[in-house]
C-alpha cells in the first residue's frame, strides 16, 4: 500500500494576534500519517499495527515523514521567543575547561580534555605528570561534522600499541583502528563491524573482540542474535580471525572476553539478557588449553576482578543480592568452591583494585562510601570523601602508589582528587572553573511512599529561597530499570533550569540497582507497573508538598526512561503539563524483534512468552494505550535516525498515535536528530541545541517566562 500524506504550507502559527502578550502558538495541522491494514494475532487476540510501515528505516516514505515532522517541530521551537536566549546561556555556562583523571600507559600519562565547546573530547598525553603535554588523538578531526566519535581505547600492557574504536553517526556498530603510540602510525587495516565489545590485548600479538554477523536488511534495525568472541592476530586479515566462543555451537546474545593483568588467563562472560551471565576461563599458557566453566546458568552475575596467580577474585551476586567478593582456585573454579573475601552487607557493593589494594564502593541510600581492603579482605580504612555525593574511578595498576578519583554531586561540579594508596590521604588534583556558586542552591533527599507503601528515595535540588507555592517549574527525571542506579551528579545544563527558579527531582525507582537485585526485580516483568507507580507517586509528592503543580510539572526520561514517561503520560495524562519521552521503548509487543532488543526480556518479558505476559505488556505499552479523545500533556518525543539501540520506529509510532488521537490544543511534536544515535558520542553543539529546545518547550507550555522576559 502506498503511503500518502499532505504537507500543509503553514504548519505552526501564532494563535489570534501574535503580537499580543501571552498568546501561544498552536499547531494548525500535523503531517498526515498513513495507516496500513497490518494486524498481529497474539494468543487469539488481534492487535492492529497501522503504522508498521514506519519501521522501515530505509524507505523513501519514512524519510519523507521524518522531514515533514521535523519541519513542524523546528518551525514551532524556533518561534519560541526566549529559545535563543536559553541556548546563549547554555553555551556561556558550557564553555569551561573539562578533563578526566590521568591514566598511565607505558611511559605516558593520558588525559581526556575539552577546552569548553569542542564537539568531542581530545586525548592528550605527557611523559610523567610534570612532562610537556601534547595532543595525542583528536576525534574532532574524524569527520567534518564531528558526528564520528571515539568510542573506546585499549592499550597494550607496555603502552606501545593502542586499539581505539570509533562510532559513526552515533551507531552501536564500531570500527577498530590500531596505532603505534610512539609515532602515531596506523599499524594495519581497520577492523570492521564490531558491536557491543571492548578490546583486550594478548601481549602485543593480537587482541580479543566481539561482534555479530552483519545482519540482512538494515543494520540499524535488523535483529542481532548470536554474539561471537574472536581473536585477531595483528597484521593478518580480519577474515582469518579465530572464533573463540559463541556462534552456532554456543549461541549467546552477549559475549565479552578480557585478559588478566598478568596475561595468564582469558576470562569469558556470556549472557542472553542484560541480567545474569555465565563465566569461563582459559589458561593462555597453552593456546590449546580448553575453555573451563566457572559459573554456568544465567540466574546470577559474575565478574573477575583480579587474580593473584591461580587465585581468582570474583565479584558476584550469587546468594548475595547486594553482591560480595569471593575467591576461587583457577584449577578448580566451580561456584561451589566460592569463599568470601568481602561478604555481602546491607549496601550494594562494587569493587575495583589499585596499588595492591581492593576498593569497595558501597551505595548507602544512593550515596557513595569507599572502603579500602587488602587482598585478603582485611579492612584498612574508610576513605574520607569531600562530601556527600558520588565518587568513582578507584582503579590503577598494582605497582602504582597513587590513584585519581572523581567526586561529584548535584551542586558539586565533578572534580579530580589524587589519593595516596598507602597513606590514605586525598589532595585536590583538578577542579573546573564554572560561573556557578554552589551556595546559591541546595539539595535534599526525601523518602516518599509509593502506591503499595514502599519507601522510595528522591533527591530534590533547587535555588535557595524558592517558595513552595505550587508554581515552580519542575523537571521530574527517572529511569527505573536494568539494575541501573541514578546517582547524585552535577549538570551544567541543569543550572539554566535551576537559576530560573526551576526544581529538579530525581527519584530512585524500583527496577534500578540502588538497593540491589531485589530492588531491581521488583520492577521487572509482571511487576513493571511498580516502576510507573513509583514515578506517579513522586509527582504526587512534589505537588502535595507545594514544590510544583500539575500545570508546572514536566516528566522526563530516556531509553527505558522513555518507556517510563510514555507509560506514565498515557496512564495519568492529567498529572503533568509537559512530557519528554526520549529514545524510548514504546512498542512493548515488538521491541524484541529489533537489533538486540531480545536481550531486554529479563526486565520486560516478551509478548510471545505467555497469554498473561502478552496481556500485561499490552496493558502498559505506550503505543497501544493512546486513547482517542484524551487530552494529553504538551509532548516532545525525541529520537535519532541512527539509533540502533532503541530503533526510532518506537518513537515514530508513538508520535503518530498521539497526533492522531490527542484531543487538546497542546502540541505533540517529535524531534528527530539526524546523523545521531542513542546518545553516546553526540557532539556538543547538538547536545546544547537539544537542551535549549527542551527547556524552551517546557517553559513555553507551562506559561513560565525565563530571564524576566515577556511572551
Automatic annotation (TrEMBL):
GO molecular function, a single term: serine-type endopeptidase activity
UniProt keywords, alphabetically: Hydrolase, Protease, Serine protease
Record's GO cellular component terms: cytosol
Domain (Peptidase S9A N-terminal): residue spans on this chain: 31-429
Catalytic reactions on record: Hydrolysis of Pro-|-Xaa >> Ala-|-Xaa in oligopeptides
Superkingdom: Bacteria
Domain called Peptidase S9 prolyl oligopeptidase catalytic: residue spans: 488-702
Signal sequence residues: none
InterPro entries: AB_hydrolase_fold (IPR029058), Pept_S9_AS (IPR002471), Pept_S9A_N (IPR023302), Peptidase_S9_cat (IPR001375), Peptidase_S9A (IPR002470), Prolyl_oligopep/macrocyclase (IPR051167)
Pfam families according to UniProt: Peptidase_S9, Peptidase_S9_N
Family affiliation: Belongs to the peptidase S9A family.
PANTHER family membership: PROLYL ENDOPEPTIDASE
Protein name: prolyl oligopeptidase
Amino acid at each position: 500500500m502506498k503511503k500518502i500524506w499532505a504537507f500543509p504550507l503553514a504548519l505552526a502559527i501564532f494563535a489570534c494576534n501574535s503580537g499580543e502578550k501571552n498568546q501561544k502558538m498552536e499547531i494548525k495541522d500535523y503531517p498526515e500519517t498513513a495507516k496500513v491494514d497490518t494486524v498481529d494475532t497474539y494468543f487469539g487476540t488481534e492487535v492492529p499495527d497501522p503504522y508498521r510501515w514506519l519501521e522501515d528505516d530505509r524507505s523513501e516514505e519514512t524519510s519523507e515523514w521524518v522531514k515533514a515532522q521535523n519541519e513542524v517541530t523546528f518551525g514551532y521551537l524556533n518561534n519560541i521567543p526566549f529559545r535563543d536566549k536559553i541556548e546563549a546561556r547554555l553555551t556561556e555556562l558550557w564553555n569551561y575547561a573539562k578533563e578526566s583523571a590521568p591514566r598511565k600507559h607505558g611511559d605516558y600519562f593520558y588525559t581526556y580534555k575539552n577546552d569548553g565547546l569542542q564537539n568531542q573530547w581530545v586525548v592528550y598525553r605527557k611523559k610523567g605528570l610534570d612532562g610537556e603535554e601534547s595532543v595525542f588523538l583528536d576525534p574532532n578531526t574524524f569527520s567534518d561534522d564531528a558526528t564520528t566519535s571515539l568510542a573506546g581505547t585499549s592499550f597494550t600492557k607496555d603502552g606501545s600499541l593502542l586499539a581505539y574504536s570509533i562510532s559513526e553517526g552515533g551507531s552501536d556498530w564500531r570500527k577498530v583502528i590500531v596505532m603505534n603510540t610512539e609515532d602515531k602510525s596506523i599499524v594495519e587495516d581497520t577492523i570492521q563491524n564490531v558491536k557491543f565489545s571492548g578490546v583486550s590485548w594478548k601481549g602485543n600479538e593480537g587482541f580479543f573482540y566481539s561482534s555479530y554477523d552483519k545482519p540482512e536488511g538494515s543494520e540499524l534495525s535488523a535483529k542481532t542474535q548470536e554474539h561471537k568472541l574472536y581473536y585477531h592476530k595483528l597484521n593478518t586479515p580480519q577474515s582469518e580471525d579465530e572464533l573463540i566462543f559463541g556462534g552456532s555451537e554456543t549461541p549467546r546474545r552477549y559475549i565479552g572476553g578480557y585478559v588478566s593483568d598478568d596475561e595468564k588467563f582469558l576470562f569469558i562472560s556470556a549472557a542472553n539478557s542484560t541480567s545474569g551471565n555465565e563465566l569461563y576461563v582459559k589458561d593462555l599458557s597453552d593456546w590449546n588449553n580448553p575453555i573451563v566453566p566457572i559459573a554456568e546458568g544465567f540466574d546470577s552475575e559474575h565478574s573477575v576482578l583480579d587474580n593473584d596467580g591461580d587465585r581468582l577474585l570474583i565479584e558476584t551476586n550469587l546468594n548475595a543480592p547486594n553482591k560480595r567478593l569471593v575467591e576461587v582456585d583457577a584449577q578448580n573454579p566451580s561456584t561451589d568452591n566460592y569463599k568470601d573475601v568481602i561478604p555481602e552487607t546491607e549496601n550494594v557493593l562494587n569493587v575495583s583494585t589499585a596499588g595492591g589494594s581492593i576498593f569497595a564502593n558501597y551505595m548507602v541510600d544512593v550515596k557513595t562510601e569507599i572502603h579500602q581492603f587488602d587482598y585478603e579482605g582485611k579492612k584498612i580504612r574508610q576513605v574520607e570523601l569531600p562530601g556527600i555525593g558520588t565518587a568513582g574511578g578507584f582503579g590503577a595498576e598494582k605497582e602504582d602508589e597513587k590513584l585519581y578519583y572523581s567526586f561529584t554531586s548535584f551542586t558539586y561540579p565533578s572534580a579530580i582528587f589524587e589519593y595516596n594508596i598507602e597513606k590514605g590521604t586525598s589532595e585536590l588534583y583538578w577542579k573546573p572553573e564554572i560561573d556557578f556558586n554552589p551556595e546559591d542552591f541546595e539539595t535534599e533527599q526525601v523518602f516518599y511512599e509509593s502506591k503499595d507503601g514502599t519507601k522510595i528515595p528522591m533527591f530534590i535540588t533547587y535555588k535557595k529561597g524558592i517558595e513552595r507555592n505550587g508554581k515552580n517549574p519542575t523537571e521530574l527525571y527517572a529511569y527505573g530499570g536494568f539494575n541501573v542506579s541514578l546517582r547524585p551528579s552535577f549538570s551544567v545544563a541543569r543550572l539554566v533550569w535551576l537559576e530560573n527558579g526551576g526544581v529538579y527531582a530525581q527519584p530512585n525507582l524500583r527496577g534500578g540497582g540502588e538497593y540491589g537485585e531485589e530492588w531491581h526485580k521488583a520492577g521487572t516483568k509482571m511487576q513493571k507497573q511498580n516502576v510507573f507507580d513509583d514515578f506517579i507517586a513522586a509527582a504526587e509528592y512534589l505537588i502535595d508538598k507545594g514544590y510544583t503543580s500539575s500545570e508546572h510539572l514536566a516528566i522526563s526520561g530516556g531509553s527505558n526512561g522513555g518507556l517510563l514517561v510514555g507509560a506514565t503520560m498515557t496512564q495519568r495524562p492529567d498529572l503533568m503539563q509537559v512530557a519528554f519521552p526520549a529514545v524510548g521503548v514504546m512498542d512493548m509487543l515488538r521491541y524484541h524483534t529489533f537489533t538486540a532488543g531480545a536481550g531486554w526480556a529479563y526486565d520486560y518479558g516478551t509478548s510471545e512468552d505467555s497469554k498473561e505476559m502478552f496481556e500485561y505488556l499490552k496493558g502498559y505499552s505506550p503505543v497501544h494505550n493512546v486513547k482517542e479523545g484524551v487530552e494529553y500533556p504538551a509532548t516532545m518525543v525525541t529520537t535519532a535516525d541512527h539509533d540502533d539501540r532503541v530503533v526510532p520506529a518506537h518513537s515514530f509510532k508513538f508520535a503518530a498515535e498521539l497526533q492522531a488521537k490527542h484531543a487538546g490544543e497542546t502540541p505533540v511534536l517529535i524531534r528527530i536528530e539526524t546523523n545521531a544515535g542513542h546518545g553516546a558520542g553526540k557532539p556538543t553543539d547538538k547536545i546544547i541545541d537539544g537542551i535549549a529546545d527542551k527547556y524552551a518547550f517546557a517553559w513555553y507550555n507551562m506559561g513560565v517566562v525565563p530571564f524576566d522576559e515577556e511572551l
